[in-house]
Amino acid sequence: MEIFLRLIVILVKVIALIVSPLLEAFVYRPKSKRTLIPPIRSRLLTLSVQELRRRLQSRQLTSVELVRTYIERIEAVNKHLNALIESRFTAALEEATETDDLIASCQTAAEVEKLFEERPLLGLPVTIKESCALEGMTFAVGSLSRKNIKAEADGEAVKRLKLAGAIPLLVSATPEYCFSIETDTLLNGRCLNPYDSERTSGGSSGGEGSLNGAGASLFGIGSDIGGSIRIPSLYCGIFGHKPSGGVVSVKGHFPNSLDPNIGHYLVEGPITRFAEDLSELLQVMAGKENSSKLRLNEPVQLNQIKVQYALAFEGINGWMHMAVDKDITGAICKATTHLKTLGLNVKKVKLPNLENSVEMALSGIAGQDLMDYLLTDENPEGSGKVRETVWEIVKSVRGHSKYTTNALIFELMRRTGAFMSQSKINQYMKETRELIGEFENLLGDNGVLLFPTLNLPAPRHKWSILSLWGVDYTLMFNVLGLPVTHVPMGLNERGLPIGLSVIGAPNQDRLCLRVAVELERAFGGWKPPVPHDLDD
């Protein structure tokens, strides 16, 4: 363990223990309405990809009708969320019209079936995280210094979704350079949580989390280098899957890295309200070859899955972290109890060699010196970058920097090697490589681990820094390259989403997705922020 790092973690824990009750008692008074978003009125917004495709294929529904319904929902909720960065609604409706004409040109049911086999997402709307690159759309990624930059081409995963027939509606909000777990930038302002406007939607896929949680996206594409899919999924009550390292191309993503191993850490994946759609969306995003490697088309017998669980980090390492919220540990216990009643082999386990989880997790990021930096463009010679970053943090806190504080803190961690020497970073990275094998042995080819996604539900705006120091709950599984599915498990007494992570061994994504489907069936999955008020 690194003493300085751990002192920071302990200090944050002490501050949280003192400040959190005071904030709740004296600063944030109870409100009668935590969210102003309107209820869902169209039944189309409650249907999964699979059900909507059946209706499109049978010509009971048109793509124009579906796309227009989602556009209307986005326009109704975005004024309460600030999750949309740039829309392409007119172009999307034109593409939907072309899709309907294409379907209408088919003479037989067999022709229609073949068309949907070739393009399984035909006519279905999708929302895109800004950092994933949608051609012709803004590519600023929350940065004032990039505010006029447009994406010159589609990112690889976006391209695959479009080739499968999906129709992009917009690009959604991210933190600056995706370097935060709170989506709040000087360029675009603050993205709000659909369940409570005083709380963050998370980051870095915060816009996607907010839109999906509000029922304003059928599905979205996010990216994840340290929890950026899973944290917004937890905070906004939806499903998000971080694929195994390397199976979904991040070509075209910003920021990116020249490191040939970046795909092990940085991944793109699907975000949705419907667990049953995750496997198919991942197939499309991964492409034919990698989908075959993941065996996503092979049926998974639920009762053959071995389930293990842990409620937190253990021992001294666990004590140093902030305690995991009782509702989150309760959700894990409810899930394991249910799976046990189905006849699955379920047991609590001691996780292998995670005493240095903070150090191992941060070493993976600290070692990414070939990834884009915030301050590089201004002083390309790179001297005195730590001092420059510290000074920018001081300026940012005083409101005089063009960079956001959270992004600068992330930058400082990278510039300083997370306050570790290079030899220590190498040591912890070696421990991480050894740990991959230990998790492979623990989980095998038929096992999953249930574990907290993060220790707390969505925090108040500006207080996400307290949760940031528990980011090894998510970041650890990026550096290990393991697949993780976040599963929503209902709302707590404050009306905030809670949930858990289902983790598999490398390339065992299908096991995580199968368990997610079962937990959705048993516990209901996504719960809307406001009860539906359906017209029909």
UniProtKB/TrEMBL annotation:
**GO MF annotation terms:** fatty acid amide hydrolase activity; monoacylglycerol lipase activity
Specify the domain of life of the species encoding this protein: Eukaryota
Q: Which Gene3D superfamilies match?
A: Amidase signature (AS) domain
- Which Pfam families does the entry link to? Amidase
All copies of domain Amidase, residue ranges: 65-513
Which key words are in the record?
Answer: Hydrolase
Keyword Metal-binding attributed: no
Gene Ontology biological-process entries: fatty acid catabolic process
Could you tell me which species this protein originates from?
Answer: Drosophila melanogaster
What name does this protein carry? Amidase domain-containing protein
Q: Where is the active site?
A: K129, S204, S228
